[in-house]
Amino acid sequence: EADIYQTPRYLVIGTGKKITLECSQTMGHDKMYWYQQDPGMELHLIHYSYGVNSTEKGDLSSESTVSRIRTEHFPLTLESARPSHTSQYLCASSEWDHPKTQYFGPGTRLLVL
Amino acid sequence: KNQVEQSPQSLIILEGKNCTLQCNYTVSPFSNLRWYKQDTGRGPVSLTIMTFSENTKSNGRYTATLDADTKQSSLHITASQLSDSASYICVVTDRGSTLGRLYFGRGTQLTVWP
Q: Is A5 in CB contact (< 8 Å) with chain B?
């Protein structure tokens, strides 16, 4: 079982609200990732980080933002949630030397009404 | 077009039966291929990983094969159990990716009935 955690696991929120999805890992991994996954579809990379103070946008355009102030935390924020943001968000991390071995958190299921 | 295609999209089998899931990819240059198991509402968990030089890898009742020439992989599940019900995702990494970006298939949704 990977030591990577996400909160909340489920979130139902109204349009226009600001939300932050938390992700933390205790493995000391430098690299962290956020993926978005819709039902029956593949995972899409939306943000990644090489380490503290490093953040990059992924392959899929997203209105969310991320920050990496501490190695173990990689929160994702939506300033104004919309129904189109309804999805599952998965956080992952990997070692610098073995970036192909990504460990995933349990995910956050977001529903925006 | 997705660079990793999986089939079938969904599969229902009876407990105790065997099944085989397929993965075709176009990712190049190839580094490695993983099969992940994703339970409903959970994050993916790695089952097997194979590099270019490996053509088979087992993990208990799960056996993965890789044909790097035809760019095909399969995951064979033996003597299925109810707990095998999940989505099985094929993930390919390219050799040129220092980030470690992964190319994901859409998964095969396996349901095992008693």
A: no
Please write the tens of the pLDDT for every residue from B28-87.
Answer: 888 889 999 999 888 999 999 898 888 999 999 999 999 999 999 999 999 999 999 999
A60 at B interface, C-beta within 8 A: no
Task: Tell me the residue ranges of DSSP E strands in A17-99.
Answer: 19-25, 31-37, 44-49, 56-57, 65-66, 76-78, 87-94
Q: Which of B87, B102, B103, B108 to mutate to test the interface with A (most CBs of A within 10 A)?
A: B102
| pLDDT for the residue A62 | 83
| Nearest alpha carbon to residue A33 among A97, A107, A83 | A107
Q: Which residue of A has its CA nearest to B109?
A: A40
Reduced to 3 states, what is the DSSP secondary structure of residue B35? strand
Q: Under a CB-based contact definition with an 8 Å cutoff, are residues B51 and B113 in contact?
A: no
Residue A98 scores a pLDDT above 60? no
